[in-house]
Design a protein that fits this description.
single chain
Length: 151
């Protein structure tokens, strides 16, 4: 039969282990609350106007990612462009954004992003980590952009 002291010692040890586990997990859980959402440009979408690319470039030559932070920090969105097959981006820009139309609860959502003084419209069709560039004249007009060409 176990002594009362050993039972109490085991309970204290378990409590200490639980506290350590909570302390170890807290930073991870907190970081998840302010994490970025990373999207990849759909392969069938055109390249955004934010990057000046050589004329001979083809859509398939590049991968583009968009990292959007929490809604209260939208001015910290980041776009990176990669040469296909490379692990490192050759260009990265930070800019601002505003919602043109829609909401995450009712896609599609259209968001205007301005990077390097150039504004282009991103379309999020579903709640998936993929985005498309929009050339819809009505959406571009709602975003305050020229409907005939990019700004």
């Amino acid at each position: 039969m176990r002594s009362r002291a050993s039972v109490v010692a085991r309970k204290v040890t378990r409590l200490k282990i639980r506290r350590l586990a909570v302390l170890a997990l807290a930073p991870i859980l907190i970081a998840g609350c302010v994490s970025e959402t990373k999207f990849t440009l759909a392969s069938e979408s055109r390249l955004p106007y934010w990057f000046p690319l050589p004329e001979e470039s083809r859509r398939g030559d590049f991968k583009v990612t968009l990292e959007a932070t929490a809604a209260d920090r939208e001015d910290e969105s980041v776009v990176k462009i990669y040469k296909r097959g490379s692990l490192f981006s050759f260009a990265q820009i930070t800019g601002s954004s505003w919602v043109v139309m829609g909401s995450p609860e009712n896609p599609p959502v259209y968001v205007a992003y301005t990077f390097n003084g150039v504004t282009d419209i991103v379309e999020h069709r579903r709640n998936k980590p993929v985005f498309y560039m929009s050339d819809d004249p009505k959406i571009r007009e709602l975003g305050g952009l020229d409907v005939r060409s990019h700004d």
